[in-house]
Design a protein that fits this description.
Elements (H helix, E strand, L loop, with lengths): L4 H12 L4 E8 L5 E4 L8 E6 L4 H23 L4 H7 L8 H11 L9 H14 L12 H6 L9 H4 L1 H60 L4 H16 L3
Antiparallel strand pairs: 1-2, 1-3
């Protein structure tokens, strides 16, 4: 039966004592969740080695920091920030260790999965951390700009102040979205007014053309010898009506 990695580590510590590593099988579900078992859970099960010398307390602490950082990364990702821009927000690619970069890549694989909540992404990332598949993603391995902003790797670390970028970017992104929306609405309103004016001009032209046709007919009769006095009043009326076309 599959159990969580945390329980596997505890079991191995008891059974193996000073043993450095132990092998377990890792299975990844369709939703990205990871489970572990001492026996293969499917044909796609992957055999991985787990360090048993690390205390559960240290692992929990490291993964807590990894969870906080994944939340900041997921927040920025969900707000539309590209991964390259995110790296710049935390000091550039050189500020990331190989393992912390692996964490970022893990989070960004869910970018197109819009139904995946940020909380779920953080939960999955924490599970990956506890499983050891992300490597060393403890506080000291995270970008210094992030950890120092949060108060350093100590008990007073504050995830809220460690990732102000996630909140300031969100505010800036919201303001930009508002400006874009207002510009779109303004452009749409201008387009609507232009369409109304074109329709009005079409009606006026059609109205004038109708009266002009009747005026042309009367004038043609007059050129053929019809008494002008018979048509004078009608011509004046038609010309007045044509001028009233709106």
């Amino acid at each position: 039966m599959a159990v969580t990695m945390k329980r596997i580590v505890s079991l191995l510590l008891v059974l193996a004592g000073a043993q450095a590593t132990a092998d377990v099988y890792r299975c990844t579900g369709e939703d990205g969740s990871v489970t572990f078992s001492q026996t293969p859970c499917s044909n796609a099960a992957e055999l991985v080695s787990v360090e048993t010398g690390t205390s559960a307390t240290a692992t929990s602490k490291n993964c807590k920091h990894a969870g906080h950082f994944s939340d900041a990364v997921a927040r920025l990702m969900r707000q539309g920030m590209d991964k390259s821009d995110l790296l710049d927000q935390f000091g550039g690619a050189d500020a990331f260790s190989r393992d912390s970069m692996r964490l970022v890549n893990y989070v960004y694989q869910f970018k197109s999965a819009q139904s995946m909540s940020r909380e779920r992404i953080v939960s999955l990332t924490t599970t990956q951390c506890e499983a050891g598949t992300l490597g060393n993603v403890g506080c000291s391995a995270l970008p210094e700009k992030y950890t120092q902003a949060g108060g350093g790797c100590s008990s007073r670390f504050s995830p809220g102040t460690a990732a102000p970028q996630a909140f300031t970017f969100g505010a800036a992104n919201a303001a930009r979205a508002k400006r874009d929306r207002e510009m779109h609405e303004k452009t749409a309103e201008q387009g609507r007014k232009m369409a109304e004016q074109r329709e009005k001009d079409r009606r006026i032209d059609a109205c004038r053309a109708e009266f002009q046709t009747r005026i042309d007919q009367i004038q043609a009769q007059m050129r053929m010898g019809s008494d002008p006095s018979r048509h004078r009043v009608e011509l004046q009326r038609l010309q007045r009506k044509m001028g009233e076309c709106r």
